[in-house]
Amino acid sequence: MVDYTTAAPGVHLEEFTPAGPISGAGTSVAALIGTASGPVAAADLGTAIGFTSWNAFRDRLGGFKNGVTLPMAVKGFFDNGGTFLYVVPIKDAGGLDGALDVLTRHPQVGLVCMPGLVDANAQAKVITHCETLHDRFAILDGVQDKDPLKADGLLQTQRGGLLSQNGFAALYWPWIKIPNPLATDGSTIAVPPSGHIAGVMSRCDSTVGVHKAPANEPVRGAVGLDFALNDTEQGQLNAKNINALRQFPGTPPMVWGARTLSPDVPWRFVNVRRLVSYVEDSLVEGLRWAVFQPNNTRLWKGLERSVTEFLTRVWESGGLFGRTAKEAFYVTIDESINPDPVRELGEVFIEIGLAVTRPAEHIVLRLGVWDGGAKVTEG
Q1: pLDDT of 169-190, one tens digit each?
Q2: For residue 23, is it within any domain?
Q3: Mean pLDDT of 126-130
Q4: Cα–Cα distances in Å, from 41 out to 45, 155, 247?
């Protein structure tokens, strides 16, 4: 700042970087890793190729082919409301490490899928990728299994090898049935759901917001399920944090679960994890103006204004719980967390608390009979 003590009296002009509003980070760009059906140019193999439509993908990497799940997943993504995705074509599972490394260079990715790749070790790598970058979410396919509750069966064994402490991944089961695009007899085929689920998440993000749990949502393009769960079976899968797809009378297949692979209650739900990641990513992007600014109370006030304004918008959209903004969040940036030793290191700390909204996973109807008739209360 200019020292005015020795300046001549008058009007002085001083330029500064304003603390502008924070724009929300993107959350719905998906990245799909898999084997293409058509010939892949050497320059395309292992690279992230952006697509805005199914036709563009088909023209470059090939259409439907028996035994190849990637095209079905891409079509399902766009059919369910997705608008942009990256595809990283690989020869086989051995190309996964390279594909994940490529995706570290695309910070706009918010969702990661490997359609049909159900090996727990490979899926664990994707979880680690998402946890490390802290700004994306893994959508994983459960293995096909005719006995999903068997303790040492395929699905339960797969589940036992998957963990995301802070909830950066979710597992979906069973596979969905779609009309066979390679047949004319009206037959169906079973395909992994992850590409379709990514489209559902993208659709929820655009129509409501990232705080909306991507559940109780129809899976467009699906006409059936590879396994029909009953309530008892789903209850046991839900307790293991395996998200079920269900088909109820008169409805298409629906996403009927919203849990992550975290054992911790704070990170139990998909929308909570994705909302917090959205807030974190938005703040990282929106506060870059403050880097290298003088570390003083003027900067702190600017940061507080920017963060408060952004979080107020998140609260107003329904992402945070509280009757007022003060009940929904708090922002602290003062000497208590920025003492002299911290400032001397060139560091600024901002403490933020969020009261996130969680989905109403269980709606409990309490019915009783009284003299005036039946009474129903919701709790």
Answers
A1: 999 999 999 999 999 999 999 9
A2: no
A3: 98
A4: 6, 36, 40
